[in-house]
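testing teh design pipeline on a random one, pls ignore if ur not involved
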């Protein structure tokens, strides 16, 4: 089983044709959405806060609140069946002090900025195997600290997903699984 986590910058590039990396992000996300990766035991995740980051980025670039809402609404529903949000259970109240402390520790451990610390926290707590981002250099140091993590651009990850040899390696990873889709989502 393999867990792939997608950075919000990939989603921003996917929804805005004028963004650098639009075509590559679109190719990657479309592949994720249209190839039933669950059947191959490949699970896709992003942060629960990604929607906020995407809406904010769309609005900052377009200055059009309606466009930001429309694009976010258009993508949220179809993605919700394929892309899981972390932390997984929104009904469980997040203890703000504990969450902030976790983010501070993550920032100190990995040297990440605030938004990146949210993603870094998820990557380390949920045993993510691949992190897909356009900011590879912001996260490359994590590969040395989390030995099972590989940081990839959308181009590299799409190539990995289409490569039968890499898929075979992905499928050989054994993990204890717990939720309705077979994913262990509890944090360490």
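output:
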């Amino acid at each position: 089983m393999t867990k792939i986590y997608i950075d919000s910058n990939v989603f921003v590039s996917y929804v805005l044709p004028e963004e650098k990396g639009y075509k590559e992000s679109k190719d990657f996300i479309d592949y994720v959405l249209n190839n039933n990766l669950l059947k191959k035991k490949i699970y896709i995740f992003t942060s629960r806060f990604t929607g906020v980051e995407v809406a904010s980025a769309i609005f900052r670039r377009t200055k059009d609140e309606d466009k930001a809402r429309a694009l976010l609404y258009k993508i949220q529903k179809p993605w919700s069946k394929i892309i899981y949000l972390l932390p997984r259970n929104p009904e469980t109240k997040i203890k703000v002090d504990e969450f902030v402390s976790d983010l501070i520790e993550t920032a100190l451990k990995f040297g990440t900025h605030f938004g990146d610390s949210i993603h870094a926290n998820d990557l380390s707590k949920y045993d993510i195997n691949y992190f897909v981002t356009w900011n590879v250099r912001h996260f490359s140091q994590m590969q040395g600290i989390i030995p099972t993590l590989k940081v990839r651009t959308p181009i590299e990850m799409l190539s990995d997903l289409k490569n039968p040899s890499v898929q075979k390696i992905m499928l050989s990873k054994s993990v204890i699984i717990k939720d309705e889709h077979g994913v262990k989502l509890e944090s360490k």
